[in-house]
Amino acid sequence: MQQFQVTSDSLNIRSAPMVDEANQLASLPKGYIVSKIKNSENDKWWKVATIIEGKTLEGFVAQKFLSPVTKFSIKTVLKIGEIPILQANGESAFFYEAGMSINADGAPNAYHPADRGIDFLANAGYSDNWWALAVDKNGNPFIQSSTDPYPGYYISTTALFDSGFVKQDPRRYVDSTKIPYIVLPGNGDFRKATGVKLGDFAVVYNTNNEKLAFAIYADVGPKNQIGEGSIALSQAVGNDPLVQSRVRRGIAKDIVYIVFPGSGNGKARTISEIEAETKRFFEIWGGVERIKTLDNKV
Fold it and tell me: What is the dihedral of CA 276, 280, 283, 286, to 10 degrees?
């Protein structure tokens, strides 16, 4: 889809290609970005798609108030460490380029009392401060029973969870080995500046091999670090992080992340839901072709 900018002070997007008080869907401010879907039968109107408050919207606009975007105006929202978090004027999506360290949290075989899980137990915390394990009221980690996926292993948690399961049930958490997810910093300034919330969707692109993955924001990391994903996400962009069945191999650089604030519903989702929802946001944003224009901006 080709992107256009609103050139008038405000532009109404309508459910039909005509001016009528009853068909106004929203009002777009000057500079707002839309993507053209097609001409209508009346060539004065175009059908467009856009993202408003984290939701996709399709409708008709008067094409004379649109101008082709030949160059996006990019601003730095803030920096996390040395990584700039970028955003185009007229859009809520933000993007950044980093490496990918690997988060095994949520996998039922992530951590074991004898430290033989797929991740090292030190990454789950320590006695009285288990940040990645489900614990009882005394702070002691729950251990999976004979009816759980990995009896004898601890229950690893993620910040995003399914409230339909109790906290000592491994199914409550987002499984790193199955679900492509990203980790974002536990930083109040970051959340305020971007508007992102747990459960929002993201696109992750490996510029070295052009592999693309759709992901969900499912866990929170250190406040001054960014560039982290699940085992399933790492594999989806062409990197196997497991060496001798343990998490050892991340990606050093050249991974582009595009995040769509407000796109989720705050709940854990299936792979098919993540793909279906995120694909539409990505198409409206500009797809792979637009990612390739970011080389000198991220």
Answer: -120
* 298 close to 76: Cβ distance less than 8 angstroms: no
pLDDT at residue 294 is higher than 60: yes
User: What is the edge-to-edge ordering of all strands in the sheet holding 10-14?
Assistant: 24-29, 10-14, 55-62, 45-52, 33-39, 3-6, 66-68
What three-state secondary structure class fits 67?
Answer: strand
Measured in whole angstroms, how far is the alpha carbon of residue 26 from the centre of its chain? 25
> Shortest CA distance to 83 belongs to which of 187, 179, 9, 219?
187
Burial class (CB in 10 A: 0-12, 13-18, 19+), 197: middle
Segments making up each domain of the chain, as ranges: 3-68, 74-102+176-292
Sequence-ordered alpha helix ranges (H) in 207-269: 231-236
Structural contact between residues 174 and 219, judged by C-beta atoms closer than 8 angstroms:
yes
Report d(CA 100, CA 136) in Å as an integer: 32
One-letter amino acid of 19: V
CA angle 211, 213, 219 (to 5 degrees): 135
The residue-averaged pLDDT of 151-168 equals: 97
* CATH code reported for the domain at 74-102+176-292: 2.40.40.10
Whole-angstrom distance, CA of residue 271 vs CA of residue 137: 33
168-172: which pairs have CB atoms within 8 A and are 24 or more residues apart? 168/134, 168/136, 168/142, 170/108, 170/144, 172/134
- Cβ atoms of residues 41 and 17 within 8 Å: yes
Fold of 3-68: SH3 type barrels. (2.30.30)
Q: What is the pTM of this model?
A: 0.95
Tell me the per-residue pLDDT of 187-220, one tens digit each, with 9 for 90 and over. Answer: 999 999 999 999 999 999 999 999 999 999 999 9
